[in-house]
Batch of 2 targets.
Target 1
Amino acid sequence: MQPKTIIDKIWERHIVHKEIGKPDLLYIDLHLVHEVTSPQAFEGLRMNQRKIRRPDLTFATMDHNVPTVHQNVIKDEIARKQMDVLEENCREFGIALAGIQHPDQGIVHVIGPELGLTQPGKTIVCGDSHTSTHGAFGALAFGIGTSEVEHVLATQTLWQKRPKTLQVKVNGKLGLGVTAKDLILAIIAKYGVDVGTGSVIEYTGEAIRDMSMEERMTVCNMSIEAGARAGLISPDEKTFAYLKGRKHAPQSDAFEEKIEEWRALATDEGAEYDRTIEIDASEVEPQVTWGTNPSMCASVNSQVPILENIKEKSERQAVKQALAYMDLQPGMPIKDISVQHVFIGSCTNSRMSDLRAAAEVIKGRKVHPGVRALIVPGSRTVKNEAEKEGLDKIFIEAGFEWREPGCSMCLAMNDDIVPPGERCASTSNRNFEGRQGNGSRTHLVSPAMAAAAAIAGKFVDVRQLETAKV
Amino acid sequence: MEPLREYEGIVYPLNRVNVDTDQIIPKQFLKRIERQGFGQFLFYHWRFDDQGELRENFLLNNEQYRDASILVAGQNFGCGSSREHAPWALLDYGFRVIIAPSFADIFYNNCFKNGVLPIKLKEEEVDQLLENAKQPYYKLTVNLEKQTVYDNHSFQAYFDIDSYPKEMLMNGRDEIAMTLTLDDKITAYEQKKQALI
Ligand code: SF4
C-alpha cells in the first residue's frame, strides 16, 4: 500500500460524500462550543426549525467572557446575557455544558484534552481559531466560523476543501531553558505568518518526539499563527499514556483496542508531503516578540530590527507600522524593553507544566514594584492541581494575582485589560494591535520568560537566572 | 443570503497588510447575540478616537468614501480570530466585495457564507487599485460569472475562485438545506462507523 500521512488517513476516513466540483463533505467527530461564537448559530437553527443532529458529539463550556476574580460575579450585563444564552441553548438542545464554576470548566482547548474528549484520529471543530491545539493528539482539529458552527450542529458535517500537507521538521534538540513556545515562535519568525495558508501542518522530528503532550499542545496551538488550517503530531506512547483513564477516553479493554487503531494512524515511513520546511532546534533561543504579529519576533539576546535592512517593500511597511504602534526604536536591545504587566495564561501556556516552569523562576523572589502580574490557570482542574502542589502560594507570596480559570487577558473581553500604551509580557499567542486592550502592547514569551520579566521588570534571558525546585 | 452576480461599487483603499479580525471588529463588540448591527463598530479604533469621536484623518470617515462598498487592502487580510463578526460587520457597514492579494483561510470562507465576495488579485493589480482609489468615487465592476474586475478606463483583471463557493454566492444558496438533502449518506456513514466500534 502507498505510504500516507496522518493528515490523508484522517481525511479519507471522514469523507461522507464526494462529488466533482465540490469540496468533500467531512464528518465531524467532536464539536466544542463556547459562548462567544455560538449564539447566532443556535438562533439560526431555531429560525429554520432545525434540530441538532448529534448533541452527544457536542460539548460546551464558557471561557472567553468569564470573570477571573470571582467567576459568578459578572458585572458586564451583555457578557452575562451571552453566558445565560449559552446555558439556555444547551438546555434546550440537550448539550453537555461545563459552565461557570462547574468542576470541568476552563478554556475550551485546555479542557478537551484534559477530559479525554480529544483523541487521535478524530475530526474536531470549534468556533475558535486555536482549535488546532487538539492536533497535538493526532486529531484533525480546526477553527470554524459561526455559520459553520450552525452547519455542524444541524448536520454533523462540513464541506471542506482538501488541504495541502506541510511538514515542519524540527531537527535536533532544544537547549536547556528553551521551550516549546520559543520553538513555535522561532518557526513563525523564520517562515512567516502565512507559510501555512491552505495547509495542514504535521510537526515531526526529534525535538517534537522529545516533547511532553503539554508542550506539543503549545506548538500545535500556534499553527494558526503560521496561517495553517490545522497543525498536528502523529500519536505515540506519550499520547496514549496521557489519555489513559481520562473521563471521556475509552476505558479498560476498549482503550487497549483503541491504541492499536491509533498507532496505525501515524504517518507511514516514506509518505510524501506537498511541502517540507525545516528548523534546527538547537539554534533556537528564548524568544520575545517585538511587533504586532507573531512572526515579528527575535531572540531575547538580540535587537529590534533596523528598517534599512529589510529589503521587501510590504515587509518594511509592516515593520514600520508595528514599531510605531509598539513605540520601539529600531536597533534597540530586546533586554532594554521594560514591562508593566505580566500575564501567564491562555490556551497556549496555562497548563500544569507551564505553571510549574513559572513557579521555578518565581520561587523565593518578588514581582518588580512596577509590574502587575497575573496567573490565570487554563481550567478548574489545573487550578485545583496547582493548589494541591502549593504553586498558588509561591505565586501569591511573590506578588502575583492568582485567578479563576478563563481566557482572561489573552483577549481582554472581561475585566482583565492592559491599559493603552502599556506593555505586557504575555504567554498567549497573539500580539496584534489592541489584542489585550485598546492601545495595549503585547510581547509574547514562554511562561519562564514571562516569570523572569515579572521579577526584573524587563526582559531577561531566563537561562541566566537560577531556578528553584518546586 | 443575497445572491451576487454582477456588482458595481465605489472603492475604498485600505493600504495596510495583515489586517486582522480584531481590527475589523474589536472584541468588546462580540458580546451581542444577533448577527446584525455590527457595522457601526467596523474598524472601530481606526474610525473613532478614545472619546468616541470620528477621526478625520481616517479615509473611510471622509464624506467621499461614505458610500464605498468595495474594499481593497494589502496581503493576509482577515487573519487572526475566527470570528464571523468580521464579515458581518463589513457587510452591515455596506461592503460586498473585498479585494486583496491574499486572505486568511477562515475569514475567506466566512465571507462566502454571508454573501460577501473576497477576491484575490495579484499584488501589482492590488497596488494599482490602491493607487486608483485615491481618487474619490473611483468605481469598479465585478462580474462573478466571468471572474473579472474592471473599471471604466483601462483596469481589467481576472481572478480565480473555486466553483463551489462561486455557485453558492451566485445563487445565494442555503448550504445547510443543501447538505440536509444528503441526510441518507450521513446516516449511512454513521452506521458504518458504529459497526466498526
Ligand atoms: S485563551 Fe485566548 S486564544 Fe485561547 S481560546 Fe481563549 S481567547 Fe482564544
Note: Chain A has a mean pLDDT of 96.
Target 2
Amino acid sequence: MAEPYVRLENIVKRFGPFTALNGVNLDVHSGEVHALLGDNGAGKSTLIKVMSGVHAPSEGTIYVEGKPTVFNSPRDATVAGIGTVYQDLAINPLMSVTRNFFMGRELYKGPRGLGIMKMGEMNEIAHDEMLKIGIDISDPTQAVGTMSGGQRQTLAIARAIHFGAKVLILDEPTSALGQKQQMGVLKTIKKVRKRGDIAVIFITHNEIHSQLVADRYTFLALGQVIGAGKKDELEHNEIRRLMAGGAEMRDLEQELADI
Amino acid sequence: MSDRNESDRLQQESTFQRLIRRPEAGSFAVMVVVLVLIAFASNGNAMNALGIKNNLSIISQFGIIATGAALLMIAGEFDLSIGSMIGFAGMSMAMMLKWGLPFGLGEATPFSAFFITLAMTLSLGWLIGTIVVRSGLSSFIVSLGFLFGLRGVTEVTFRLINQSTQISGLQDFKETSFFARLFGGESFGWFYDLAFALGFNLNRRGEQWVTGLDARVVWWMLVVLIAYIILSRTQIGNWIYATGDNKESARANGVPVNRVKVGLFMTTALCATIFAACQVFDTNTADAAKGNLKELEAIAIAVVGGILMTGGFGSVIGVAFGAVTFGLVANAVFYIPWIDGSFYRVFVGAVLLAAVFANERIRKRITGGI
Ligand SMILES: Nc1ncnc2c1ncn2[C@@H]1O[C@H](COP(=O)(O)OP(=O)(O)OP(=O)(O)O)[C@@H](O)[C@H]1O
Ligand SMILES: [Mg+2]
C-alpha cells in the first residue's frame, strides 16, 4: 500500500479540562475520499482543525508524506498542501467574492503587503474557478453576505482547489444546501477524486452521501475512533451502527417506539 | 426549462444606482447639504479667500487623525489614545526645541525633534497594539488606559523640566528650516496668487489678501491619498478588511491579523504625530492640553464617513467627506454671528446618531438582514 499523504498518529487535543480528542489515528491517501463520520460533538471539526494548523495538538504527531511535521499556523498547513473548507466556511460576509477568494493570497504587483492587487485578473479567476464546479456568479464584486449558502460553499471549495490543495478537507459541505446543489458538491468531490493526486476528507452526517463518494471511513465517538476501514471491508449495517456513535439502530428504533 | 442562469438574476444597475450604493454616498450628501447651508447662512463669508483657508485648516486637522482612526476601525479596533498622543508628541517636540535633546546631546533641530518624537510615538502605538493582540482585551479599554496615562506623563514631564505646562514663544523655525516649513508653512500659494492675478483675493486696500493655505492641507491630502491606495488597491488593504470583518476566518486563510492590527495602531500614532508637528511648527507653541477629545472627534468623523462600528467595511473617501462636514460646522460660528458655538456639539451628536443608524442599515443589507 502506498504511503498516506497525511498520517495522524495518536492525536490528543484538550481544551482545558475537556478532552476533545483522545488518541486519534487517521490515514489520508491521495486519490481517495475519506469520510469522517460521527455524532455532533464527536470531535470531527476539532480533528480537522488540528490537521489544518488551527489548533496545535496536545499530544501526537502529524506526518506529511512520511515526515513528522508541526504546523504553527494555518499558513504552514496550507503550504504543506492542506486546504480546508470549514463548517463556517471561513468567509467574510462584508467582502466581495473576489476579495474572499484571494483573502491572504492576493495576486499583486510589487512588494508583499504594499503590492497593488491585480483586481481584474483576480475577478476573472474567481469567476472561472467557481464556474468550473457549477456556479456562475453574476458579479465577482458582489458582497458574499448577499449570496446563498450553496454559492458560499462553492466559493470556499473552489478557493481551496485553486490554491493547490493536496488534501481537501470539507466539513459538512452539503449540510446547508438544497438537493440539486448537494449533488453538485458530490459531483465536485468525484471530479476532484478523479484527478488522482488529491485526497478528500469529507465530513458529513448523511449516510447516503458518504456511500456515494467515500472510499474509506473513519468513525469518531466522544473523541475516539470507534471504527475504520475501506468501503468494501465495511457492511452497510455496520456503517449505520457506527454512524449512530456505536449504538444499534434497532435499539434506537425501539427507544423511539417506546415514547 | 429555459437556459436562464444565475447572472440573469442580477439587474443591471445604472451608474447613478451604483453611485448611491457606494459607502461614501451618505457622507457625501451630508457634506453637500452642510456646505450649501453654511455658504448661505454666512453670506458667502465662509467660502471667501480667508474662509477657505481657515476651514481647510481645521478640516485637515480632523481629516489627518480621522483617516488613521478609520483604518483602525475597519480592522475592528478603536484607539482612544489619539488625543493624548497629540499632546505627548507636541510636548516632546517643543520641549526638545526649547531645552535641547535628551541626555545632553546638544541642540535640537526641527528634523531631529520630529524624528525622535516619531520614534517614541510609533513605539507607543506598537505597544498599545501589541497589548491588544496579545491580551485579547478590548482595544477600547487598553487605549483608554493610554488616554489617561499619556496625558499624565505629558503633564508631569512638562512640570518637571519646564515648570509650566505650556511652551510659547519658541523661535520661528519656519524662517530658518525647510523641514519646519513642511509642517508649519504655507501651501498652494500659487493658487492664491493666481486668484489675485485674476482679480479675486483682495483686501480692503486692493492688495493680495491671503497668501496660501496651511501646509497641513497637503499632509491631509497625502494621508488620504496613501490611505485610499493602501485600503482599496493593495494586499494590506484586503487584509485590513478581512481582519475587521471576521478575524478568525482571515487568520484561517493566512492573513497576518495581529501584524495588521499592530501596524494600524502605529498608523494612528503616526497621524497624531503629524497633527502635532503641524501645530507646533505653525504656532511655535505647545500645551499639555493639546489634542483633548480629538480621539472622539476622529471616531465620530469616521462613523459619519460610513465606517461600521463593527469593522470590515468603509471607505477613506467617505471619511474625507466627513472631515469636511465636521470642519465646516466647527468653524461656522466664526462666519455666522447669530449662531451659538455650542451648536457644533449638538450637530455632532445628531449627525453621529443618524450615521450609526444608516450604517447599520447598510450592514444588514449586505449581510442579508434586510
Ligand atoms: N475551542 C474549544 N474550546 C472548548 N471546547 C471545544 C472547542 N472546540 C470544540 N470544543 C468541544 O469539543 C467537542 C468536539 O467538537 P467538534 O466541533 O469537533 O464536534 P463535531 O464532531 O465537529 O460536531 P458537529 O457534527 O456538531 O459539527 C465539543 O464538545 C465541543 O464543545
Ligand atoms: Mg463540526
Note: Residues 6-92+164-258 of chain A form a domain with the Rossmann fold fold (CATH 3.40.50.300).
